[in-house]
UniProtKB/TrEMBL annotation:
Residues 500-517 have a biased composition (Basic and acidic residues). Residues 6-216, 283-524 form the ABC transporter domain. Keywords: ATP-binding, Coiled coil, Nucleotide-binding. It comes from Allorhizobium borbori. The lineage of its organism: Bacteria, Pseudomonadati, Pseudomonadota, Alphaproteobacteria, Hyphomicrobiales. This is ATP-binding cassette subfamily F protein uup.
Amino acid sequence: MAPPILKLDNIFLTFGVTPLLAGASLQVEPGDRICLVGRNGSGKSTLMKIAAGLVEAQSGEVFRHPSATIRYLEQAPDFGSFTTVQAYCEAGLGPGDDPYRVTYLLQHLGLTGEEDPSRLSGGEARRAALARVMAPKPDILMLDEPTNHLDLPTIEWLEDELSRSRSALVLISHDRRFLEKVSTATVWLDRGIARRLDRDFSHFEAWRDKVLEEEEQEQHKLGRAIEREEHWMRYGVTARRKRNMRRVGELQDMRAKFRGHKGPQGSVQATITEGRESGKLVIEADKITKAYEGRTIVAPFSLRVHRGDCIGLVGPNGAGKTTLLKMLTGQLEPDSGIVKLGTKLEIATLDQKREDLNPEETLAHYLTDGRGENLLVNGEQKHVSGYMKDFLFQPEQARTPIRNLSGGERARLILARIMARPSNLLILDEPTNDLDIETLDLLQEIVAGYSGTVILVSHDRDFLDRTVTSTIAPAVPDAPDGRWIEYAGGYSDMLAQRKGAADERRKAEKAAEKPKAETANAVETPKGKGKLSYKQKFALDNLPKEMEKLQADMAAREAKMADPNLFTKDPAGFNRLAGELEKLRDKLAAMEEEWLELEMLREELEG
């Protein structure tokens, strides 16, 4: 085993009264790829900052190898007085580092380097900060929420880049799929203690549940042991005084341990307040378009959204997801085409920029709209402090200004407000940003069980796969041209359908080339004879019958797929039928082309 290049041992840190870190440890060896997980507020970012030397622990040992280089990606990068992104990134290079590496990373991250740092969007700022910390190829690369504000193509590129990197990695992220692909070890920060599992994140949840179950069993055993000792104290035969005092001391220690046990942080307990039932047709868009400065954002696009649908919007930054979402919900007029909203709609919206939050407002005021101490949730009056507990806020935080909350706490606060309001149409724009795994699980359950309609924009592949019934994506993924296509199922289903369609197109092209070659060869043979060959005549006579049979097969499959409940009941069967239908269409097109060429040849020879 290689010696560690970074080691934190028995780290303690307290803010206020409650210890944030209570003996946490972390060890990083060359080649490690560690994901650091835990609830919002468990101290993940703080432990990473201590490791990077940006925060000092109150006690404990910190060892960093003298020759090891460390780079830390913070959630809110400071651009200082730099006038260009290129200058900001190059300032992170050390002696002997390759400056071309900055140019390479900026190009792949979609930046030129000439941008003014003060005018960058959230996504552009995150890309610039990534280029700065990755360019030196440090011995240890620490990334705090690196996928926030990044689009899917960039996230997938980052996965590949980190997989090739020789740097040891320590990652904090809410993106399950990203952690599964990049990590090889998992450190769980829970109640101030760090536990390590030398397996990737895909094994974390089963391991965590097993640890908590064993802990509960140990606590139960301790309680039973205390009961036995207390019974002995009351009714046992008196032995030597020295022995009695020893057992009294042991009993006191057991009681202290039992009382001092702090169970795992509770999970968010909440259900969404659903409004009255909307009309069956929620949104109908007919050939809507949008363009800005000569660039087509949405080419003619039509969509029907029915009550109960859950639709995901995906695509690279700048493709027009938010623009399309605003047109579908009536917030933005299309250049052409019509959008009709259904009846009885009650819309609740989660905006990715969290613009609804006033940093000076208190949590209680925000949740109640300043209307006293109570709010109505699912028809019941609840005190704001009790409702806040459901979302893991302490009662004393009721008078806390929103500016004091972390990113994850702000996300939870917005969810708390949305869930208290009656709704039948949820609009979620990047809802997973800053949420911990457990709150993400709750959000997935809410979306999956919501009887209303959901439209969401997300770059979280796992969240999309677990929630949506259809996915809208650009027709050309790498270079969006305004054309959008709706695919059945989640993100993985969309990729499979794209791949299947591409494979079938290639097969159809090859199949179409083969009849052409055979026909071209045959054209030369019968020229002098003035008639078709037996093989050509047979094909000309039988192709119409085969095409008619194909059309009947296609109609049968289309009739089955017309059942609106088929995808929900049998998604695998729906996808199988869609694939078969695509193959039949390609085969029919090849037959029609072959028949047309033979018919033209016949007319030429007979004429």
